[in-house]
Amino acid sequence: MLQPPSNAHWSKKKSADEASSVVPPLWAPPSDWPEWALPQPWRLQPASARCPPGLISIQLYTLRSIMNGDGVDQTLAALANYGYSKVELAGFYGRTAEQLRATLDSFGITPSSSHSGLSDSPAALETKLADAVTLGQTHINVPYLVSSNGDDWRRWADQMNEEAAAANAAGLKYGYHNHAHEFTTDLGNGETPWDIFTSRLDPRLVHLEVDLYWAVTGGVGVGAADPIQFAIDTIKQAPQKTLQYHVKDRDAAGDFADLGTGAIDFSRIFAAHRPKEFIVENDRPDVTPLQTAEVGFNYLRKLRF
After folding, report:
1. N or C: which end of the chain has fewer CB within 10 A?
2. How far apart, in whole angstroms, are the C-alpha atoms of residue 153 and residue 68?
């Protein structure tokens, strides 16, 4: 039977500080020892971090088919029952900002974020930011832009910097939500929309809301040997901070999937970078939107990383 050496095998400690060290200074176990035989300092620690419930949200686009009429209140009541205290808005569902805030308050839900497109006028920007403040949001994100012209992406980046400055002045964080084409579109000479945005968006003003499904899909699209690592590198290499994730699973065929039923290794991604908010999403729920919501919340609460 393998026997780890006793403490007497180690060199004597020279100071109180050395005596308190968890790593013996002069000995290491052979590399072929199984973990059960290792002294405690060398044993792998099981993943123990998890998503706090207060950092879990859901993009209401997932539930768009039932977010109308009386279904708005019924859906929000169900989300609160599952444990959600935050949502990300995708519209006002036929209500004013004030009315929607009152509805959300009645269920103990905060709309911490929203998807809102670029404004077409200063007045529209003022209204967009005022509504976000009324709703009690902390974040506002541009959800989608697409073009094969690099000048469009440069112009959009400059506009986003301007809008972000106004948002920051109103107490809001301003971000961009990706899809896959930002990584796969060749604008000429190998330049991509992601290259332009990450080099041109002011990291002091603009954050990233990384959609993990689309980041992994982008990795697949560019032929990355490890699409999960591609997503991790995308997050780590960008000058902008990734404050939010869209946590959306991807099955082996590349389709959307409820969390935990697909192939994305979220534990690996979360261990590499932890955002401020984990936002559940499935563009096409597997069975029903509410089942997707419940499965997503429970999955994130149980996940260890």
Report:
1. N
2. 34
